[in-house]
Every structure is written in structure tokens, then in C-alpha cells.
Design goal:
Layout: H1 5-12, E1 17-22, E2 32-38, H2 45-52, E3 62-63, E4 66-67, E5 72-84, E6 87-98, E7 108-112, E8 116-126, E9 139-148, E10 155-164, E11 167-168, E12 172-176, E13 180-190, E14 209-210, E15 215-224, E16 230-239, E17 242-250, E18 254-264, E19 271-275, E20 278-286, E21 292-301, E22 304-313, E23 317-327, E24 334-338, E25 341-349, E26 355-364, E27 375-376, E28 381-382
Antiparallel strand pairs: 1-2, 2-6, 3-4, 5-6, 7-8, 8-10, 9-10, 11-13, 12-13, 13-16, 14-15, 15-16, 17-18, 18-21, 19-20, 20-21, 22-23, 23-26, 24-25, 25-26, 27-28
């Protein structure tokens, strides 16, 4: 059943009296105004109560024949039998409370540590729970402690603002040896555009790449966080120029030395040079950080007489072959035959400009009865 215009007019024209009037100092307090009127018609009671629960019942609120300032909303309406001076009468009550509050309470900081600042803003007597503001890089919001008053239906809740501060580990040396110094640093809570929590560019953040030559900066890890910040871990490798390795080899026929200069500012011209039994090779390896490892290898031939001697003997000849290795000049190639002796000379040029000179001497051996052949036919035989 809904109220009638007659119910409405009756309520608006009554001289309501105050039964209880609470006005609280703090904004979170609901306060209360309870007014009453005696002797309503019991037959109209249901309609009267319906109207008193409508917002219009508080539109022009009066009590003790005075206008009540402020905006109120209905909270409850009821009737009961009371005894006044020994006589019973019916009394109709109307309870009103202040309307929902505009704005919020005073914000306060609940956490101000190394990495976060947390600010809480209370809201009281709200008609509804507000949605939290959209977060930004490094700043997130959430609603907490929401609760509806069971009598008024108004809400109280707290808006939490959580701000991450940009922090860093500082520069830490992780390796320092003969060839390089390696340092690392990590920044936490870097905001969009590589800015910190104050809006300024992050101080100390290295630019990835090679600058200057010999210094390599790498972003070894970039991790996205839930609050739209990033954690950035950087590594800086600074190369040290030095003579890194010297290798020597020696055999019967050559000696060699290889020298590598590490982390040099410029590359050498790669080449191979051959002169007088000496082979010189130069090469460079790009390290990727603007430096080069330059290597020079020098191989020197060792002249060796009678380096290779080979002998052989059969029933009809003997022979010897002698090779002189890594000679400065070649012999004239020839073949000589005299008195059962054949002499051969030849030369082979090596890659290093020297020559391997070979002489082979073959001497015939006199042999009696070296060859005996026998034959026989039907009519004769011979030897």
C-alpha cells in the first residue's frame, strides 16, 4: 500500500515535537533527529508511515515549529502506545538523519618507508561506494573498509593511495680481473619515460650501448611490475687494454711466436707477409664493445743440413737421398751420369721463401752370374 495525498498533507501540517535530537561534531557521526506527533488516526497509520519513509517527508523539515537547517533523509517511522499523565495515547515517531556527506575526511599517511608511501582518505555517510581512481605508473588506488550503516544505508569506506618510490641498489662491482671491470646496478619502480617518483629523470641510469669504446652497457633485465613501473638491472663492462698472451713454439725446422694484445682501441690491418724464411701474420677480432684483440704470429724457418737421409740397397745398386731443409737458395736441378753413378739434384720452394734441396746418388753394383737363363727344346738345350 502506498500513501495518499491525504496522508501526506496530514504529516506536513502537524506540529511535530522533538523526542531526541543528536548533532555530532565529527563528520563520520550519523547524528539523529527523532520527532513525534500524538493521536494519529489508527486507520491511516499505514499510509502515514509510508509517507514518512519517503524522502519528501524531510524536504521541509520542522520541529517545535521551527525549520530544521541542513539536508536530512528519513531513517525510520513507527508508532507506539505511550502513557502521558496516566492516560494512554498513540504516538507516531519519525527519525531523520543527515543526508550523505559531500567530499571526504582529512587524508593521513599510514606508511612512509624506503619504497612506499601509503595515504588513506576516509569517506563517511556516502550514498554509494565510489570507484577508485585509475592508477598511473607507480601510483595505485583501492577501496578498503567499506561498510553500510544498517539504519541509514549510507556507506563509509577508505580510499588507499599507494605510491612507490624509485630506489636503487647503487653501483656494485661483480667482477674485476686483468681484462675487465664489471659493475651492475638495479633500479626499482622506474616510471614511464624513465622518470622517478618525483617526475624527474632517473639519476644514474646508464644508456645502453657502447660509449666510449671499451665500455659496454647492457640492460640485462627489465621487469614490468603490477603498478606499471619497471625494475631495471644494468651491467657495465669496462675493458682493460693489455698484452694478454704470448705463445712460443719451436721444432727442428721452425720457431714461432704468437702475441695477442687484448682490448685495443683500433684494429690492425690483416695481412700475411713472407720474406727470407719468415712468415708474419696479423689479424684482429672485434669484441663488440668498441675494442679489438690484435694478434701477430711470426714463424721463422730453421735451416737444417742433412735433415732427411734415406738409404736403400738392392743386388744391382745402392742409393742415398739427402734433403737439406729450409735453405736460403735453391740448387740447380740436374741429372749427371758417370762411371755407374747417377746423381740427381732438385729443389722445392716452401711457403716461407726457403727451399728444400734434395740430392740422390745411385751407384750400380757389379754382379757375376747376375742373370742365368736356361732353355730346352725337342732338339736342343742351352744356357
Amino acid at each position: 500500500m502506498s500513501y495518499t495525498e491525504q496522508n501526506k498533507a496530514w504529516c506536513l501540517n502537524q506540529k511535530w515535537k522533538a523526542a531526541r535530537w543528536e548533532t555530532l561534531k565529527y563528520t563520520f557521526g550519523e547524528g539523529a533527529l527523532v520527532r513525534y506527533v500524538d493521536e494519529p488516526a489508527l486507520a491511516d497509520m499505514e499510509g502515514l508511515v509510508e509517507f514518512l519513509l519517503d524522502a519528501e517527508s524531510c524536504a521541509n523539515l520542522k520541529v517545535n515549529e521551527k525549520r530544521v537547517h541542513g539536508t536530512y533523509v528519513p531513517a525510520a517511522a513507527w508508532w507506539e502506545t505511550v502513557t502521558v499523565r496516566g492516560a494512554e495515547r498513540v504516538r507516531l515517531y519519525h527519525e531523520c538523519v543527515p543526508a550523505d556527506a559531500a567530499g571526504s575526511g582529512t587524508a593521513y599517511v599510514t606508511e612512509n618507508g624506503c619504497t612506499y608511501t601509503v595515504t588513506m582518505t576516509p569517506y563517511f555517510r556516502q550514498a554509494a561506494v565510489a570507484a577508485p581512481p585509475a592508477g598511473t605508473s607507480g601510483v595505485s588506488y583501492r577501496i578498503t573498509g567499506e561498510r553500510a550503516d544498517p539504519r541509514t544505508g549510507l556507506w563509509m569506506f577508505t580510499l588507499e593511495k599507494r605510491e612507490q618510490k624509485t630506489t636503487t641498489t647503487g653501483v656494485v662491482t661483480v667482477r674485476d680481473d686483468a681484462f675487465a671491470t664489471v659493475t651492475e646496478q638495479t633500479f626499482y619502480g622506474v616510471r614511464t619515460g624513465n622518470t622517478d617518483h618525483t617526475g624527474a629523470a632517473v639519476a644514474g641510469l646508464w644508456t645502453a650501448g657502447v660509449s666510449p669504446a671499451g665500455t659496454l652497457v647492457e640492460n640485462v633485465q627489465v621487469r614490468k611490475n603490477e603498478n606499471c613501473t619497471t625494475d631495471v638491472t644494468q651491467r657495465k663492462t669496462v675493458a682493460k687494454a693489455r698484452e694478454a698472451t704470448v705463445e712460443r713454439v719451436q721444432t727442428k725446422f721452425e720457431t714461432g711466436v704468437t702475441i695477442t694484445l687484448r682490448n685495443q682501441a683500433a684494429a690492425v690491418n690483416a695481412f700475411v707477409a713472407v720474406a727470407g724464411g719468415v712468415i708474419t701474420r696479423r689479424s684482429s677480432k672485434d669484441n663488440g664493445d668498441g675494442t679489438f684483440d690484435n694478434t701477430e704470429t711470426v714463424t721463422t724457418a730453421v735451416a737444417a743440413s742433412d735433415a732427411v737421409i734415406e738409404r736403400y740397397q738392392t743386388a744391382f745398386e745402392t742409393g742415398v737421398t739427402i734433403t737439406n731443409r729450409n735453405q736460403a737458395a735453391a740448387v740447380n736441378a740436374f741429372v749427371a751420369v758417370a762411371g755407374g753413378v747417377i746423381t740427381r739434384r732438385s729443389s722445392k720452394e716452401n711457403d716461407d721463401g726457403t727451399f728444400d734441396n734434395t740430392e740422390t746418388v745411385t751407384t750400380a753394383a757389379a754382379a757375376a752370374n747376375a742373370t742365368v737363363e736356361r732353355y730346352r727344346t725337342l732338339y736342343e738345350e742351352g744356357v
